[in-house]
Structures are given as structure tokens and as C-alpha cells.
Design goal:
Elements: H1 4-29, H2 34-70, H3 73-96
Helix pairs in contact: 1-2, 2-3
Length: 97
């Protein structure tokens, strides 16, 4: 679970991302140049990717570390499998940006 500094960082970034996405809508509505719209979309995607990195880092530091420290081999295996799925999915998203 996110708390403290990470939660504040994420909420601040999400507010900026909301503004960027709204700007994309305004740009399209105003008939702005496609390349300018694409640049704004790219900026929003990059910002969202940064949010994902913060969430992933927090997950590893809290949920994963706690499970590994518990000594439960089944829980450890499940958490490693979960991480592999996350890395696979997140890696695909990162390559698109």
C-alpha cells in the first residue's frame, strides 16, 4: 500500500497528467498540428510511466520484501511469479512509450 512521500509524489504527478490529457483534448478540438498533439501525448505517457515506476518500487520494497522475509516458500514463489508477470507487462508498455 502506498503512503507518505510516495503517495504525495504520485498524486502530484497524476494531477499534472490529468492536465496534460485535458490539453490533448483541447489541442485536438482546436485542430492543432498532429506532431504537437503527439508530443503532448508522449509527455503524458512518460509521466504515467514514472508513476508506474514509483508504484512498482514501492511494491518491491513493501509487499515483495515482506513476503520474501516471511520464509514461506509457497508465498515466495507466488510473489516471484507475480513480479515476472508485472515485469513482462510493464516492459511491453515501456517499449511503446
Amino acid at each position: 500500500m502506498l503512503c507518505g512521500t510516495d503517495k504525495k509524489k504520485i498524486m502530484d504527478r497524476l494531477s499534472r497528467i490529468e492536465g496534460q490529457v485535458a490539453a490533448v483534448g483541447r489541442m485536438i478540438d482546436d485542430g492543432r498540428y498532429c506532431v504537437d498533439v503527439l508530443a503532448q501525448i508522449s509527455a503524458a505517457e512518460a509521466a504515467l510511466g514514472q508513476v508506474g515506476k514509483i508504484v512498482l518500487g514501492n511494491h518491491i520494497e513493501t509487499c515483495v520484501a515482506g513476503t520474501l522475509e516471511s520464509g514461506d516458500p509457497e508465498a515466495r514463489r507466488e510473489k516471484i511469479d507475480e513480479l515476472m508477470k508485472i515485469f513482462t507487462r510493464y516492459g511491453r508498455l515501456a517499449r511503446r512509450a
